[in-house]
Write a sequence for this structure.
């Protein structure tokens, strides 16, 4: 089976004043359907750059990125928006729920942009909230919920469009450790149900919950393998230092 | 995303910040209300003028003679002869001598308008005598010291028993021989029932001047041009020049008056419309602020699959709905102010002035305000649509 996410020598350069910053330096990897991958690395290693490209919010400066076999680098902004809507479900550190909409309406947003008719939209959003254990709270506004609950709503929103990839950017970053573990458990559940999950984090203890780890350092892949391997959490350069790339 | 969807989204946002929306709409509200009031007053004034003119007789021509420098003088007999020579175009004729200086009834002076006329005036102006008798040819021939009065004079000064009583015009005592039928209701001081007619011969002697003004009726109102031409050539033949008289038709005068009113209303409405533009700029201003405030929302929507045109539609729709809503409120306010203006006008002019902006003005006000919203919402919407989703997502 062809890879769902295929990075081939992906580079990303940013212009900074006179020089250029290389945020991604010939990154190559392939993620197949159903995998649970964590992309880890210390601050400035290029995680967000990778996640923006995987999430079709940005395109590579060089190299190719194929999502489900389609070359994302060749797409215009409109096509990228369509791809995000169809194939991707985002989970953000800050939840990013729309404060004026109630939970149901928040979960409906991706379906609205997909052109799903109103009745079906309500039903599917209702079901997604139900699945995350928030079915009875659908009338509430995001501000009336705890952080963990808000993150569950954002997971419901990510799932409702039946995306191919669930992309979680530091999903536990704003939560206490217990709630963080709950959210992580949900992601593991989703993986168990067959979803492809890509988790971006700087925290090794979270990364090891995944099935596979891709470790970045200065925009390069320094480790790509099972999360259970001892080298997964220790970077070659930081070997011997406590904590490696994170807490 | 469908139009209905964007509309629902826009309404949701508008409802969630009522005070701001109201402030945003203020310019549009004031502009639309001003246009409605001005157009309404203008229409009312036009109708009022047209109404007053038609009661004066739309089929009449007014001839004014300016004898200074002319070699011949036009006697009333000459004018009667001219009219009699053209029965196919001209029907009746009455000299008119207006007398300034007021009418004395008992000890007081009234604002009653007094005019010297021939016995034909009642046919010309379609007024009938309700009590006593009309002026007669013999009154004119003998310069009789008699008059007929309007219904208001009869009611207000003589308690309904004016016939046989006397009043004084220009120091001359006149006996009232008849009372005219009521023309309008309610009757008011200075209105068309507050009038007095005496023989033109008597009036000319009182005023000490020759008759210099005539009213001539046309056989057919539709043949205005031809009738006027006939009178024109007869008079220029008489004087040997066209420098000594003017002929004005009532309908021309009416056209000129309503034309002037329309122009004035147009200019004033144009000035009021400028405030609509200012209102539009106000909307643009608030929308630009709103786009900045909602940068994160825009980023989230884009990450969830909103295309540029969906974001664009959302913001343009919001501006258009805000503006159109302002337009509706402005129309309501305009009607309210029009009603107030009508009441005030009724007090001041002693006339019922209907202030009616009309359906067209209302629809135009609504359409224009929605259009202004689209126009001035376009720039902020473009700004929102062009936002880079990554930057927008991380905006605080
Ligand atoms: N928009 C940008 N303009 C210029 N340089 C950028 C931009 N975005 C990222 N960079 C640079 O690219 C490199 C990688 O940044 P990136 O945000 O991908 O790191 P990260 O791993 O997400 O770090 P963090 O854990 O702090 O979020 C950094 O050196 C950063 O300064
Ligand atoms: Mg980052």
């Amino acid at each position: 089976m062809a890879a769902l996410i295929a990075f081939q020598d992906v580079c990303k350069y940013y212009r900074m004043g006179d020089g250029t910053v290389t945020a991604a330096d010939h990154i190559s990897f392939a993620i197949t359907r159903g995998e649970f991958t964590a992309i880890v690395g210390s601050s400035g290693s290029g995680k967000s750059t990778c996640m923006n490209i995987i999430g079709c919010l940005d395109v590579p400066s060089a190299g190719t990125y194929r999502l489900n076999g389609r070359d994302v680098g060749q797409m215009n902004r409109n096509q990228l928006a369509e791809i995000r809507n169809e194939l991707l479900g985002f989970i953000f550190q800050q939840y990013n729920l729309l404060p004026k909409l109630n939970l149901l309406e928040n979960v409906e947003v991706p379906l609205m942009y997909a052109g799903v008719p109103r009745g079906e939209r309500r039903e599917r959003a209702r079901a997604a909230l139900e699945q995350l254990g928030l079915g009875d709270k659908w009338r509430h506004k995001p501000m009336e919920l705890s952080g963990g609950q808000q993150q569950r709503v954002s997971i419901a929103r990510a799932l409702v469009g039946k995306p191919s990839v669930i992309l979680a950017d530091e999903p536990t970053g704003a939560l206490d450790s217990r709630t963080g573990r709950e959210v992580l458990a949900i992601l593991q559940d989703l993986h168990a149900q067959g979803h492809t999950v890509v988790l971006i984090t700087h925290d090794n203890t979270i990364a090891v919950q995944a099935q596979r780890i891709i470790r970045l350092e200065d925009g390069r892949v320094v480790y790509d393998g099972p999360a259970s391997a001892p080298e997964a959490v220790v970077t070659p350069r930081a070997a011997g230092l406590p904590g490696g790339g994170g807490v | 995303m469908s139009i209905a969807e964007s509309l629902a989204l826009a309404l949701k946002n508008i409802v969630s910040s009522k005070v701001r929306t109201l402030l945003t709409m203020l310019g549009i509200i004031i502009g639309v209300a001003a246009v409605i009031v001005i157009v309404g007053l203008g229409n009312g004034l036009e109708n009022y003028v047209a109404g007053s003119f038609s009661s004066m007789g739309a089929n009449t021509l007014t001839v004014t003679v300016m004898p200074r420098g002319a070699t011949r003088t036009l006697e009333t007999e000459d004018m009667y002869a001219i009219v009699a020579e053209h029965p196919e175009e001209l029907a009746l004729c009455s000299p008119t001598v207006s007398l300034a200086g007021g009418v004395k009834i008992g000890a007081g002076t009234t604002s009653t308008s007094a005019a010297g006329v021939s016995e034909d005036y009642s046919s010309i102006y379609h007024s009938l005598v309700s009590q006593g008798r009309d002026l007669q040819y013999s009154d004119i021939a003998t310069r009789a010291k008699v008059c007929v009065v309007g219904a208001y004079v009869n009611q207000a000064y003589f308690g309904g028993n004016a016939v046989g009583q006397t009043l004084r015009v220009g120091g001359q005592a006149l006996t009232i021989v008849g009372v005219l039928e009521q023309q309008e209701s309610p009757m008011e001081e200075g209105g068309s029932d507050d009038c007095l007619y005496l023989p033109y011969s008597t009036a000319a002697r009182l005023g000490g001047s020759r008759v210099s003004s005539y009213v001539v009726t046309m056989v057919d109102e539709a043949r205005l041009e031809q009738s006027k031409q006939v009178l024109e050539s007869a008079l220029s033949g008489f004087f040997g020049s066209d420098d000594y008289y003017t002929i004005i038709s009532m309908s021309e005068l009416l056209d000129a008056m309503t034309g002037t009113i329309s122009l004035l209303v147009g200019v004033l409405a144009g000035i009021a419309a400028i405030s609509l533009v200012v209102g539009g700029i106000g909307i643009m201003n608030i929308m630009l602020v709103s786009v900045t405030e909602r940068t994160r929302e825009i980023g989230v929507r884009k990450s969830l699959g909103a295309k540029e045109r969906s974001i664009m539609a959302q913001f343009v729709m919001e501006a258009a709905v805000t503006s159109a809503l302002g337009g509706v409120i402005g129309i309501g306010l305009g009607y309210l102010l029009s009603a107030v203006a009508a009441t005030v006008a009724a007090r001041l002019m002693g006339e019922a002035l209907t202030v009616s902006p009309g359906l067209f003005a209302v629809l135009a006000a609504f359409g224009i305000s929605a259009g202004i919203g689209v126009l001035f919402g376009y720039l902020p919407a473009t700004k929102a649509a062009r936002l880079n989703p990554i930057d927008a997502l991380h905006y605080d």
Notes: Chain B touches chain A at residues 1, 5, 12-13, 16, 296-297, 299-308, 310, 389-390, 393 (CB under 8 Å). Residues 250-293 of chain B form the longest helix (44 residues).
